[in-house]
């Protein structure tokens, strides 16, 4: 397990991790480590508890003589360099170099100059700092806005291309002059290109296409990862995007997936075993400048302790395709797989290859910090049905909709669940108690068994047979076209929706404290891949306003408003949105490549799924994001 602290549900992302994992900081850390190795024994002063992460994300530092602290309560406590020593003992250290694990070297030097061993050189992490021109908040280096970074799976190879799409949502918080610093790595972790792109103010869109990047820099075919650093931002330190994977030169593959969580995790879930005539590939992309040792990561059937190690070393920033059937040859859909990643990778992708088509989806972070919450079984009436996981039921005449609940916390042993179905007008159409599912369950329910019409369904907790819940309810939903066999899949988690009463931070809000009772969703355009669409769902844990008051605004690539329309969705209902029908083909054409729709509602919180539909039957679908 990589000794790093990444993300905490209460504190959010660990800024130090993102500062050290930045590719430019990683290059500087490698140089610093070489300097330390060359100069002799090193004494480390660790004023803020940073050094364990510095050491984990850097190469060998040579012989570390000892680690020194100023907090008397920490003296004698275990560290990566032996028991912590008192800072007052530093003067007697047999060290040629004193390294202060701090980005504030001048201040630290002033504090301890009289304690430095005779002749010892003083160094700090200042050499790792990004240039001032790459900082949003220059007077506070470890400010979260300085490290609005993320990774993307990026490919232009084997008749498959990728396109990253987003918008300048930072501008609504006052940001001006936002720009992106980008670095593309190939499968071997080599840097293919580094460049910057300006982002238009006032909601301008972001479009980065692998074919355009390849042509711009004269690159060979590649499969790798794109590192994104947004500079000059406000409000959000997360880079959100949608990623299209689309076929070229006769390949009719099409899929869309959500942004990566920007922090590595111990484990990931909702990796499906291959169905008949399918191959499932787990794309492991090393997010760091240190290699992943052979055997440091593994796969196991969900709910089973036996896990199979991935026996290949993966170098810095390398991308490796791990065929699931090679590790777990006897496992088949609807079995689920758990990926123990050892915190080496930002949320990975998986690819399902079937009938000459491929589709990409993402794994989700499996929480290590959650424990069952007995309060969920006894929520008051004011919270109604409590946690809901809504998802669309596509037209049953044309599509199969299959739902598979997924354990998404290490402590989850049972999932006591029920499925509630509704039509577009919010009328109940069916219900099924799924039981008290075990962690190793293999349920994948085709909603055709219930005979329900188009609309949406909601997974909810149901304790009639006992069981435990933690609020981190997730599911994988698979959609299959009946005529073409084309498929898409998505996964997401439950929330409490549309109540003014709150419970443990729910209903969540995109900005401000709960309850979250408003909507701001981003629907990307089709961008030449087909007709964009989304399914908007108005889930309600308890009775709320009878109708939404949803405003949809079409924008062009510069963020200018082209057209506006109104949509009223019934409480517990849903609606399909087709921009080319809602605004007209002429307006959508005027919006052009990079055009998008902002979906706004100040009366309720909607949940959505977006994609692209082609006339020939190919389609993509994943959950939407908002800001």
For this structure, the quaternary state is single chain
Radius of gyration: 25 Å
Topology, number of strands:
42
Distance between the termini: 33 Å
- Count of domains: 3
- What amount of the residues lies in strands? 35-45%
Helix content range of the residues, please? under 10%
Mean pLDDT figure: 95
- Overall structural class, as computed from helix and strand content, comes to mainly beta
Global morphology: globular
Described by strand count, sense and barrel closure, the largest sheet is: 8 strands, antiparallel
How many individual helices? 8
Unreliably modeled segments: none
Descriptive account of the structure:
The relative contact order is 0.10. Strands 8, 9, 10, 11, 12, 13, 14 and 15 form an eight-stranded antiparallel β-sheet that branches. Strands 5-4-3-6-7 form a five-stranded parallel β-sheet. Helix content is 10%, strand content 38%. The chain is mostly beta strands and 627 residues long. It folds into three domains: 23-128, Rossmann fold (3-Layer(aba) Sandwich); 149-366; 374-626, no CATH class. β6, α4 and β7 (121-124) form a beta-alpha-beta unit. It is built from eight helices and 42 strands.
